[in-house]
Amino acid sequence: MPESRDPSRPRSVDLAGTVLIAAVLVPFVFAVTEGAEWGRLSAPTLVCFVVSAASLAGFVLVEKRVHTPLIDLALLRNKILVGSSVAILVVAGCINAILYICSLYFQNPTVWA
Fold first, then answer.
1. Cα–Cα distance measured from residue 34 to residue 36, given in angstroms and rounded to the nearest whole number
2. pTM for the full model?
């Protein structure tokens, strides 16, 4: 199979995009995992969500202006790509939920009877 690289594309790394996507995901995951203990509408949880949303807005602004973006935002205009990605996300989430429930069932089937 021949190599599929684009020789005209610069080999630089989008450091700003990398830092901003981390700033989106880290507070979001932290708020989701710790939110039950802190309270879903507590100040730390809401601050994490606000930081995540602000970082997402910054990420979109940076990716529109950088020469070699981490994610080409023009791909989001393709309805088939976006629809299939959402469908894959939903199906994968359902499969993971079923696997989780099945593992709980096989640990103690008498509870479910």
1. 6
2. 0.72
